[in-house]
Amino acid sequence: MYSKIILKLDKFSYSLRFRNWKFSRCGLPIFHRFLEKTLQNRGYILSRSYMENKLIVFFCSTTGQGNEPETMKAFWKLLLKKSLSPDTCKELKFAVFGLGDSSYEKYNFVAKKLFRRLKNLGATDIVELGLGDDQHYLGLDGALDKWIPRLFEEIYKICGSVKNTKENIIDINVLPKPQFSIQLYNDNYNTRNPPTNVPPNFAEIYSMIGHSRVSVVTGTVLSNIRITAEDHFQDVRSITFKPNTDVIWNPGDYVNVFPKNSNNLVTEFLDLVGYSTMKNSLLKISKSKNETNAKTDDSEKPFLISFWDLVKNYVDINSVPRRSFFKWCSYFTKSEAEKEKLLELSDSSGIDLYYSYCVIPKRTVLEVLYDFSGLHNCAIPIEMILQVFPVMMPRGYSISSSMKISNNIRLTAERSTEKSVNGNGLIESTRVKKDNTKYQSYGLKSSSECKTLMIFGNRNSEKDFLYKNELLNFVDKSHLELIATFSRDPKNPPGLPKYYVQNAIEDNGALIKDLILNKGAYLYVSGKLGKMPLDVKNSIKKVLANHNNGSLPLNLDDAENYLKYMIKTKRYQEECWN
User: Fold this and answer.
1) Which residues does residue 58 pair with via DSSP β-bridges, in sequence order?
2) How many domains, the chain?
3) CB distance 37 to 7 below 8 Å
4) When comparing pLDDT for 34 and 97, which is higher?
5) Using 50, 70 and 90 to split pLDDT, how confident is the model at 6?
6) Could you tell me the end-to-end alpha-carbon distance of the chain, in angstroms, rounded to an integer?
7) 155 and 263 share a domain?
8) How far apart are CA 378 and CA 33, in angstroms?
9) Interhelix angle for 14-24 vs 141-158, to 10°?
10) Does residue 228 belong to any structural domain of this protein?
């Protein structure tokens, strides 16, 4: 008999928060007395006893070039200890599901490594390795919806002796208990035990409702400048802000920006759900007490916040809702017809309806509320607000500035999609050349010994030549050698194929091969995922194999091995996104 089943989620991500809900409310009977649902974003438990007499379900993702997420590093380091014997985990039963994206070269790399390592340590897998793929037309659910029933079929076998015990089975038609306790704070509250965090601290609040500890730095926006042409379809911005406290970063680092809802959106939302008259009311929010989480740390102490501030800062009403949102809404709608439609949208059998209604048109939570009037007029109780509606998640942006020049942080972002775009992290990295100590660490006497070649690619030289003036200024001062390519430029000769970065690499192959083999060059590839990273890598291999200018002669196999060596020694790095 297993005393508990541990659900391990490795990464700070809303998709993981959703998967935790899906795991525990997937439509199958679950033995809640034997299920400890824990979002372990604070690191894995590192005791040997943790690996004994347990059934653990791991959900894990891959970051960078096949690296484990930060919250998994200590756990992975433990698993790699040479002192561990092949029977270290012989009592452990486990399952692993990877949250991946096949457009990345190291697709679900960490999940595959974890699965193999646990097997090597004697653990027993109860179900095959699950590999979710964001590129599937159903997203991660394409694999997850098929994997979860098989997982629970095996769990039933393990816990079979309690399978038919009614008190151990969750009825999916019964409203689940909320994760948070939300109460109106009024004069009747017991003032002998007042809530903490007044006024509320953003980091502490988010650590509770966002399931991850965060360090928050505020700042002042100094500039917000459009760097694409006014008539270009992409509105790309260079945004500079001054942190209100000292921060340190290096080339390649990124920041998470916490967005807020506009006042108009907050007003619309409160009007729709029927709580506009309570916008200034104080709410007391705390973690719900449950049998498996009796211990409370500082991030789980209650706090006070106004209804308005809660929605403005923490409720993501402008996002495309997950299927779980419709399931939650089905518990509260006052219309039976709407309930049937909400259940259809939440169920895997209605996935086509969900995608056509929600995903393809990018219909937001707020827009859904307009379509379902049965959710208006206080139909959703206050205490369920954070359970029904998604929590606001940070948006990640590469830093496009260097501390060698200024303590101000610059970001490059596309306004319409709030996503990073080509050009992030490239411009200011060249400015590091002005700091001689950086290059002395590589055995060079001064920055003048280090050549920086940038091959920049975009669509149109007059529309989206990002940071054009700065780049040309670097060229004029001999700080940079620049090759610019524009695939859809009107100046390109008519009738010729489009010219991309990989074409420029091959056309300048002798120079690039000399820099790599004779000068020990470091290569950094930044841009959008898809064909580009692979095409660039293939062009580099061709260059290494095909150009003989005094460099070592290489064939394609040699070039492939040398490129692998560069990746291993971090001389070839990619920062690409979807």
Assistant:
1) 8, 96
2) 3
3) yes
4) 97
5) low
6) 44
7) no
8) 33
9) 40
10) no
